[in-house]
Amino acid sequence: LVQSRYPSVTLDRRFPIIEFERLNFPEDSILGRGGFAAVEKAYHRDWRRHVAVKRLLTRQLTGSEQELLYSEARKLNLGSRSDHVISLLGVCLDPNFAIVMPYMENGSLAQLLRDVDVPWALRWRMAHEISLGMTFLHCQNPQILHCDLKAENVLLNEDFHVKISDFGLSKWRTESGIVTSTSLTGGTITHIPPECFLVDINTTFIPTAKFDIYSFGVLLWEIVTRKQPYAHAANSTLISINVERGQRPDLTLIPTDREDVTSVSELMQTCWSQNPEDRPPFNGEEDSFVSY
Ligand code: ACK
Questions:
Q1: Does ipTM surpass 0.90 in this model?
Q2: Is 148 considered catalytic here?
Q3: What pLDDT, on a 0 to 100 scale, did the predictor assign at position 185?
Q4: How far is CA 70 from the centre of its chain?
Q5: DSSP line for 41-103
Q6: Residue 4's pLDDT is what?
Q7: What distance in Å separates the CA atoms of residue 13 and residue 156, rounded to the nearest whole number?
């Protein structure tokens, strides 16, 4: 068993290796399922702690699925250097490649907002920590675009501090603007910026950091309202609502009796500006990264 508190941050193939046999999976271990992988809760017998394991459940990984999980592990490996990005504890190689991360006791922000009337001060702290985590990702070289930022993918540790998770759709973006990714397309339609749907049919959409900023605007709306964006619209009409009519999540659901809420409401509207150039960067300064 190779374990280090600060796993290698180089983008090579050296990850801490965890023996699959050391993990115990309880009966109802599944925390959630994605396209081809699932996240499960497990107990590490030597470390005597719970971990979260992302792996394929039913069959052998194909080459490209293996690459996807592998690329996700590389990003989590970098996450060890940020307090607000989930980190990599290690990977299992046998019987399949699997990602092992810390288990987050308080689940996702989506769940918390659904179940609890979260105090405003905690909501602002979480929003701030999300922006710190995103600043970290956007300042990497190559830059990491998350491309699926939403309340479900924001996890909370035992003290309700934020860890950004799920890099299944994320992409690397080099300084020359080239996006490298083995990831599947897709994502959450309510959080995808309109320009994504406006590209010529023969052209591939190339995301920039402004993609994540738009999603952050919608996420701020989720934090403030504790509701689902466009809850009453059918998925099939969302693109035309969002792109052709330029509509956004319902501002009438935002309370008007608090100054802090009003200023966050102004910020979210800047973040979801129709023109990507009008959206602010996460770090609050002008572009430090050439192709931000
Ligand atoms: O809202 P949730 O319970 O929190 O459902 C999702 C689900 O798995 C799919 O991503 C949960 N999840 C993911 N990673 C972790 C983790 N490291 N610790 C605890 N729960 C996790 C997430």
A1: yes
A2: yes
A3: 66
A4: 16
A5: EEEETTTTEEEEEEE--SSPPPHHHHHHHHHHHHHHHHHTT-TTB----EEE-SSS-EEEEE-
A6: 31
A7: 29
Backbone phi, then psi, for 134, in 5-degree steps? -70, -35
- H/E stretch holding 24 reads strand 23-24
**Among 23, 28, 31, which residue has the most ligand 1 atoms within 8 Å of its CB, making it the best to mutate?**
31
Please state the residue numbers annotated as binding site for ATP: 54
**Would strands 154-156 and 162-164 be described as parallel, antiparallel, or unpaired?**
antiparallel
Say if ligand 1 is within 6 A of residue 18 CB: no
| Residue 246 CB partners (closer than 8 Å, separation 6+) | 194, 274
**pLDDT tens-digit series, residues 84-141:** 999 999 999 888 889 999 999 999 999 999 999 999 999 999 999 999 999 999 999 9
Q: Mean of the pLDDT values across residues 62-67?
A: 74
Enter the pTM of the model.
Answer: 0.90
| Closest among 151, 180, 184, 176 to 165, alpha carbons compared | 151
Instruction: Please report, as a single letter, which amino acid is at residue 214.
Output: Y
H or E stretch covering 269: helix 259-271
Structure tokens at 169: 């759709």
Closest C-alpha among 240, 87, 72 to residue 170: 72
